[in-house]
Amino acid sequence: MNSIPSKQPVEPESSEEEAGEDVEELDGNEEEVDGEEVEVVSKKTFADLGVIESLCEACVNLGYKHPTPIQEQSIPLALEGKDIIGLAETGSGKTAAFVLPILQALMEKPQSLFGLVLAPTRELAYQISQQVEALGSLINVKCAVLVGGMDMVAQAIALGKKPHIVVATPGRLLDHLENTKGFSLKYLKYLVMDEADRLLDLDFGPILDKILKVLPREGRHTYLFSATMSSKVESLQRASLHNPIRVSISSSSHQVVSTLLQKYIFLPHKHKDLYLIYLLNDTIGHPVIIFTRTVNETQRIAILLRTLGFGAIPLHGQLSQSARLGALSKFKSRSRDIMVATDVAARGLDIPSVDLVINLDLPPDSKTYVHRVGRTARAGKSGKAVSFVTQYDLEIWLRIENALGKQIEEEDIPKDEAMVLMERVGDAQRVAIREMKDIHESRGKRRGFMNGGRGKRGRDEMDQEDG
Predict the structure, then answer these.
(1) One MF term in GO for this entry (predicted)?
(2) pLDDT of the residue at 448
(3) pLDDT per residue over 323-379, tens digit each?
(4) Other C-beta atoms within 10 Å of 8: how many?
(5) What domains sit in the chain, N to C, each tagged with a CATH number?
């Protein structure tokens, strides 16, 4: 199998002039293609979509037997050279939907800095790069990752090696465009904005505007993927895509798969920890995600569980970059069975084979509920989601049920069996309180050394959520 050389592109006519121009707004007359529901499995193969043999082989090696609906709808259009707006949720296979056409075009006309993928978070950027390298493994594709919180010099060295694909968060990409000598994207052929709604929710809009102004307009193909089509996303589409075709896969924002068993537990707020431990005792050895609303609660629950002997690890937006990547790695490798997470983990993270989702704190709305429980019962497998409902949560729980269009069944937990655990759980709660106090004291000291706090958020800080 031939590998892709890092050949320098031939400079197109008037590219310098066009790179600095403002992009024209379109008239909004894009075509639209409606797809099937995400859980429908295609009978087609990737070869049927026009994917070349070496990339089909890579798909087989990764266990991709048939394309998902977003792949089936998007890939043929992308191979025809169309700009695409893909409306699909996390877990729909959208990454391969844009990576495969880019790699196929790269093989036909190889050059360095061929494609750019923008992602809202660092974890998602790393996951996309892993899929680029996996799908391009047979053709030796080189991929560089530019994210905040990592060494800029090392990233500049990686750029100097002329990668084919760059995956970046917007803030760090702009830093390199402005400060890294010799780095330019004026020959770029493919631009992808993944989770565009998330990019804009995190206030990357002004940075995206600056990036778009230095990218070539002529000869560039652009793909925009988003879970929703807000007015902000519409504006971004008009500013960056040329006569796009819209591919819509998610048929309902409140739809859950039929293989998901949903339950709730009605309980006093003071007994949430107790019932959580009772529930986890029945799921030892199975991967579980526990969702909380705050960073503090995520940390406290992780400490509580570890004190009681569970392999728990926290994930939230205030962890350092290395800690967040380490948490994901440990959970994926199953060295830790339980991840305690804020909603930063509910979107964009490729966490396979989760058997149980626990909403320890109810989400603020039905849309977030669907995102959370969507971490289980994937690809036709069964899964379970259990929500803790206290006396303070009744109104929001009724709204969630109303949006889902069904009443969720109550989980039967014998109260006397749960109460047997009270002494052990109480001891662990006291340990967690002491450790949380130490964490807050040490954080306060660090802030003192940093002149009283974080101040205004910089580009690197914008690459992560607050959790």
Answers:
(1) RNA binding
(2) 54
(3) 888 888 899 888 899 999 998 755 656 676 689 999 999 998 888 898 899 888 877
(4) 11
(5) 15-248 (3.40.50.300), 260-446 (3.40.50.300)
Q: How far from each other are the two terminal CA atoms of the chain, in whole angstroms?
A: 44
Of 408, 93, 364, 405, give the one whose Cα is nearest residue 250.
93
The DSSP call for residue 39 is T
Q: Which residues pair with 358 in a beta bridge?
A: 290, 386
Task: Report the C-alpha gap between 261 and 376 in whole angstroms.
Answer: 10
**What pLDDT sits at residue 347?**
61
Q: How far is CA 117 from the centre of its chain?
A: 13
Q: What pLDDT was estimated at residue 395?
A: 84
CA–CA gap between residue 127 and residue 129 (Å, rounded)? 5
| pLDDT at residue 33, as a whole number | 47
* Phi and psi, residue 222, nearest 5°: -130, 135
Contacts (Cβ under 8 Å, ≥6 apart) of 323:
none
Task: List phi, psi (to 5°) of 385.
Answer: -130, 130
Q: Whole-prediction pTM value?
A: 0.58
d(CA 450, CA 437): 20
Provide the token pair at 21.
Answer: 């121009």
**What is the number of residues in the chain?**
467
CA distances from 31 to 84, 93, 195, 232 (A): 9, 22, 20, 19
d(CA 20, CA 139): 34
